Amino acid sequence: MVEHRRWLTLLSHAVLIIGVLCVALPVYITFIASTHTAQAIVQVPMPLLPGAEFWNNYGAVLSGTGHGPGSSAPVGKMMWVSLVSALVISGGKIAISLLSAFAIVYFRFPLRMFFFWAVFVTLMLPVEVRIFPTYKVVADLHLLNSYAGLTIPLIASATATFLFRQFFMTVPDELVEAARVDGAGAMRFFTDILVPLSSTSIAALFVIQFIYGWNQYLWPLLVTTNEDMYPVVIGIKRMISGGDAAQQWNLVMATAMLAMLPPALVVMLMQKWFVKGLVDTEK
Amino acid sequence: MATEKRVVFRSAWLPWVLMAPQVAVIGVFFFWPAWETLLQSLQQQDAFGTSTEWVGLENFRALFADPSYGASFKTTAVFSVLVALFGLAISLLLAVMADRVVKGALAYKTLLIWPYAVAPAVAGVLWLFMFAPSIGVVSYALRRAGFEWNHLLNGNHAMALIVMAAVWKQISYNFLFFLAGLQSIPKSLLEAAAIDGAKPWRRFWTIVFPLLSPTTFFLLVINMVYAFFDTFGIIDAATEGGPGKETSVLVYKVYYDGFKALDLGGSAAQSVVLMVIVVGLTVLQFRFVEKKVNY
Question: How many structural domains comprise chain B?
Answer without folding.
Answer: 1
